[in-house]
């Protein structure tokens, strides 16, 4: 067993105690760089999840009544503690998820920031009041915590996806049951340990790891005591959860899949565009919902851009994320590699040119060559589906209208990128894009202070920013005669 850089709890966390799963089942967590076992974590059964919800419900009233400053101080202490152990946390993340160490360090900073941001929001919870338009009465609107929440997170950002939900939920006064992804539970468990050590009261955060995601979360989804589900993951699973939410009219936040277009206009600065494109495509080994999935490039700049991107791709170093100089780690599992190969072959079969890559690398580990495709026809599957890997497909366009039409020709609407030297054009195009977020002349735009989220089938609701806490609050309007 590879030794972990930090001591990580591997049991379930229920009512303030670390305890094994009913029946004692465990599941292996492996290193995607070589398939070796890193640890075994508890494999919860449905009754464990119900026990977790029982604990969250028991703690809800008292937690909602705590002083905002108390909730704020807890989140702030957890932020400080994570930053104090940032290097160990980053190494742990790379062990179980595979991303290069520099990117894990960046995620620790980004993920911890949600705890700091929402520690600051916790003491800014407001409301509004006014006189009834007809006069003679006071109208007061106050936000209240929505109640016990189920938080379900994916494997690609194991710290940030957890803190982006825990931060606002705790700040608002909600208790939680957190279900991390089976592939990467260790960073999340380590984060919860930090919260525990910062003074988290019993039952406010409960964690269930399980290989039976559907069976374990279903009883909670059907339980009228649960007041909200916040899910980050695939659109496919999001749809299932939305159906399960209907009978109890459960409040939902859905951060789902993306199919981000990366638009490059002839007037773009080439250096800026290359830097932005490489970040938007290859960060997290292409495994981000915000990853650029389709490059739409105006004809006049296409050849120069392809030449520069080819050189950049040739300079990428594939390997274990902890090794010096590595820029592309392993994909999370064999299915992820298979998807990249399938979508690459489909594009080539439909007429695309394979400029670089296109093959998986021999194991152990799940490695894919960074891949560049040009002349990708609009009907290729990669233009409609998330490739979720290091494959960069380029399609050429002629006019701005054509670019906007291609960009919007998807069921998704999370992120878009846009490179141009003309800010009037940028504004005009932004207004026409059907997405929740746009990056102009850059390749990374996530920030704890900004509302993250999408439109169309990329989801419902926003995480982060002033908007993030509202997802965990319900408004109560009170009218008092004067
Ligand atoms: P996923 O398969 O949908 O899984 C996400 C989480 O849901 C995991 O914890 C998973 O558990 C759980 N799950 C799976 N089936 C479930 C079910 N029937 N009921 C309840 N829970 C269930 O997604 P993923 O492969 O981990 O993540 C990649 C996807 O997430 C991509 O589509 C990406 O775009 C999206 N994503 C979106 C955002 C955003 O903010 N919009 C951010 C990051 C990722 P197991 O691990 O046990 O399967």
From TrEMBL:
The active site is at 255. GO terms for molecular function: succinate-semialdehyde dehydrogenase (NAD+) activity. Keywords: Oxidoreductase. InterPro entries: Ald_DH/histidinol_DH (IPR016161), Ald_DH_C (IPR016163), Ald_DH_CS_GLU (IPR029510), Ald_DH_N (IPR016162), Aldehyde_DH_dom (IPR015590), Aldehyde_DH_Superfamily (IPR050740). GO terms for biological process: gamma-aminobutyric acid catabolic process. Residues 18-475 form the Aldehyde dehydrogenase domain. Pfam families: Aldedh. Belongs to the aldehyde dehydrogenase family. This is Aldehyde dehydrogenase family protein. The lineage of its organism: Bacteria, Bacillati, Actinomycetota, Actinomycetes, Propionibacteriales.
